[in-house]
Design a protein that fits this description.
The protein is mostly helical and 385 residues long. The protein contains 21 helices and no strands. Helix 15 crosses helix 16 and helix 20 packs antiparallel against helix 21. The relative contact order is 0.06. The mean pLDDT is 86. The protein binds heme C (11 copies).
């Protein structure tokens, strides 16, 4: 009886343990489900993590996906519950930096998140096979040409859910991202000239490949009054080019190497020189007619080049149509007191009468004057050569 009483207590204790373990297991599963579901809500992503995601949430709310769940894009598509839980465990350490406020800013500086986003994330909801993409604002897109080469949606639509235009970031150290729907970003692969920036992708740069007929191809920058004038101020385009060249050199130097699943590493869009998305280098040099800027020492050695090919220099140095004929433009620098459009020969006497001839002898020896005044103009020409 003693024995059986003990056996009875043992059975009861075992039963209690089984129940306890069972309840514990159920509680753990419920907790895991609650935690997984709870940490998968937009509320969890934006509120407790508000500190780190505050800026990002602003962009999300402003975008066309504001009614879409964060996890639709930020968790693997159709993942099994196990994978889903492992994903949670993988990012759990982020909790510490979030609480301690030691997370690094900017988040995702070189858009690695976009590069890692596979197409299946987007094609859950978007079927480009059935959607009619109508060219808006004069831009064509051939989705198929890219998809069949493994170029993912987020290679272009990286900011689809987080558009940054008009948003001010507040987290210290945070900054905006490149928007790969820009023309410069298309020119990470597309190009007017060969060799291509990314030889693995042979893609055209001609305007009509992407723009509809009637699209205004000249950008607003070119309307600046000093952009280019045949006989006037043309420094505007030169200054814009210099700014562009130094900006892109800086961006190339800071280029983050991000592996792209479609294959090669694309250069950052910021490293693309915008002038050469619309112009070949030949377009610039054909108008200049010579290497720009002038080579070192040119201030001393230009006489011969100017005499050999005055029309080339006149493109930039002539101040009027009359000065562009022959070597009249030399006067623009050599005789700055001259009135443009009139031959210097017919006006130098006025300048000498007004200011004297001392300044003239900075460049001319007295025999130079004498050559005409005593011997006639042909002798002066001979002196110059
Ligand atoms: C339609 C898909 C989509 C949805 C929905 C979405 N995101 Fe994103 N998210 C992206 C893509 C794509 C990127 C990568 C952007 C890049 O690399 O330039 C990104 C980037 C981010 C980043 C990195 C920081 C940054 O600005 O690049 C964070 C953080 C983020 N998302 C959080 C969220 C949160 C929180 C939500 C829900 C409130 C959300 N996302 C909803 C697609 C989405
Ligand atoms: C959960 C569903 C869902 C997912 C996932 C999703 N989208 Fe969308 N997307 C929408 C809805 C809804 C709209 C708004 C209605 C429309 O234009 O179709 C939209 C609109 C768009 C638009 C047109 C409006 C705009 O902002 O230019 C683009 C482009 C777009 N999505 C790209 C993407 C890309 C790229 C991804 C993957 C990173 C993605 N979407 C993932 C549902 C989704
Ligand atoms: C090579 C760059 C590029 C890639 C890759 C790309 N798109 Fe686009 N997509 C564009 C451009 C540019 C437009 C805008 C066309 C316009 O304004 O007419 C666009 C338009 C869209 C639109 C809006 C269509 C409309 O009716 O206005 C949707 C939705 C879209 N893309 C989804 C996707 C999805 C999903 C993928 C991946 C399967 C994808 N895109 C891949 C460049 C791209
Ligand atoms: C990752 C490289 C890459 C990027 C970025 C890219 N493209 Fe492309 N694109 C290609 C390739 C490769 C082709 C195929 C060219 C061919 O078939 O000859 C192509 C073809 C095209 C075509 C068809 C041209 C034709 O005449 O057949 C259009 C239109 C186009 N792209 C538009 C865009 C636009 C707009 C963007 C930027 C929003 C862009 N692409 C960004 C690689 C790219
Ligand atoms: C690979 C596709 C592609 C090619 C090729 C292309 N563009 Fe674009 N272009 C775009 C896209 C995308 C936009 C809209 C996004 C933007 O404004 O950056 C655009 C915008 C523009 C704009 C308006 C924005 C601005 O800067 O003022 C002009 C002007 C323009 N393109 C001129 C040209 C000219 C000129 C050519 C030919 C030398 C050309 N494009 C070739 C894709 C292309
Ligand atoms: C978005 C396209 C685009 C970009 C970017 C662009 N240009 Fe142009 N540019 C044009 C077009 C189109 C013309 C007119 C060409 C023609 O008439 O044959 C032009 C003409 C010019 C001219 C001739 C004078 C004039 O205004 O007609 C100069 C100089 C010039 N561009 C310099 C530059 C420089 C420098 C840059 C870079 C800072 C630049 N362009 C960037 C499209 C562009
Ligand atoms: C229509 C003729 C024309 C075209 C096209 C042209 N330029 Fe010029 N460029 C000029 C003239 C004129 C000057 C002299 C500017 C001045 O007086 O300051 C100049 C000067 C310059 C200078 C200044 C050199 C210096 O040392 O100050 C640079 C740089 C330059 N151009 C770059 C470009 C680039 C890059 C392109 C092509 C994208 C281009 N230009 C296209 C006419 C042109
Ligand atoms: C943009 C201004 C400018 C133009 C245009 C110009 N020159 Fe000069 N030139 C100078 C300056 C400044 C010097 C003085 C250089 C020095 O000695 O530092 C100079 C010096 C010279 C010299 C003396 C060089 C020496 O041996 O020291 C000759 C010869 C000359 N120029 C010829 C010409 C001729 C010919 C033309 C027209 C085809 C011309 N220049 C157009 C600015 C110009
Ligand atoms: C594409 C426009 C362009 C053409 C063509 C051009 N120049 Fe210039 N030149 C300039 C500009 C702009 C400057 C001022 C550069 C600077 O200050 O950096 C300059 C400066 C000079 C200077 C130096 C003046 C000084 O103060 O140091 C001389 C000399 C000169 N040019 C002579 C010539 C001669 C000679 C030719 C023909 C062989 C010629 N240039 C062709 C644009 C041009
Ligand atoms: C900075 C140097 C410089 C100074 C200062 C200078 N000249 Fe000249 N001058 C030249 C050069 C170089 C030429 C040759 C230009 C050419 O080939 O047409 C020239 C040519 C001339 C010519 C011949 C014009 C022609 O039609 O053939 C006369 C006249 C002349 N200078 C007078 C003067 C007088 C007067 C002064 C003083 C007021 C003066 N120069 C100051 C450099 C200078
Ligand atoms: C290329 C030939 C030529 C050269 C070189 C030349 N001159 Fe003259 N000069 C003339 C002619 C022609 C006139 C008459 C101008 C007129 O009446 O319009 C003249 C007139 C003058 C006059 C007005 C006085 C008068 O006799 O009527 C002065 C002063 C003068 N030159 C000074 C100079 C000086 C100083 C130099 C050298 C720095 C110089 N010239 C070089 C051709 C030249």
């Amino acid at each position: 009886m003693h024995r059986s009483a003990r056996e009875g207590t043992d059975t009861a204790a075992r039963a209690r343990r089984v129940v306890l373990v069972g309840v514990g297991a159920i509680a753990a599963v419920v907790a895991a489900v609650v935690a997984t579901v709870g940490t998968s809500t937009n509320w969890f992503c934006t509120q407790p993590c508000h500190v780190v995601h505050a800026d990002n949430t602003k962009t999300f709310v402003a975008g066309s996906h504001s009614r879409v769940s964060c996890v639709a894009c930020h968790e693997p598509v159709n993942a099994s519950p196990i994978v889903f839980v492992f994903k949670k465990i993988e990012v759990a350490p982020d909790l510490f930096t979030t609480i301690a406020g030691t997370f690094e800013m900017p988040l995702n500086p070189s858009s690695a998140v976009a590069i890692e986003t596979p197409d299946e994330v987007c094609t859950q909801c978007h079927d480009l096979g059935t959607r009619q993409v109508t060219p808006s604002s004069g831009i064509f897109i051939d989705h198929d040409a890219h998809t069949k080469r493994g170029i993912t949606c987020a290679t272009c639509h990286n900011r689809a859910a987080h558009p940054e235009a008009g948003i001010t970031y507040e987290l210290p150290g945070n900054r905006k991202h490149e928007d790969w729907l820009s023309m410069s970003a298309c020119f990470r692969c597309h190009a007017l000239e060969r060799p291509l920036p990314t030889p693995e992708f042979e893609a055209p740069g001609a305007c009509e490949a992407c723009h509809t007929e009637g699209f205004d191809l000249v950008p607003a920058s070119h309307d600046a009054p000093d952009w280019y004038n045949r006989f006037g101020e043309s420094g505007g385009h030169a200054a814009a080019y210099r700014a562009e060249a130094s900006r892109t050199a800086e961006a190339s130097a800071a280029a983050p190497a991000v592996e792209h699943p479609a294959g090669p590493v694309l250069r950052p869009a910021a490293a693309v020189n915008a002038c050469y998305t619309c112009h070949t280098r030949g377009y610039c040099t054909d108008c200049h007619g010579l290497e720009m800027p002038h080579p070192p020492g040119f201030a001393k050695s230009h006489g011969a080049a100017g005499i050999a090919s005055p029309a080339t220099c006149a493109r930039c140095h002539a101040r009027s149509e009359a000065e562009a004929q022959g070597r009249g433009f030399c006067t623009a620098c050599h005789h700055p007191q001259s009135t443009p459009g009139r031959a210097w020969r017919t006006q130098h006497d006025e300048v000498v009468a007004k200011s004297g001839a001392t300044a003239c002898f900075g460049c001319h020896e007295p025999p130079y004057c004498a050559a005409c005044h005593v011997r006639g103009p042909q002798a002066a020409e001979a002196l110059l050569r």
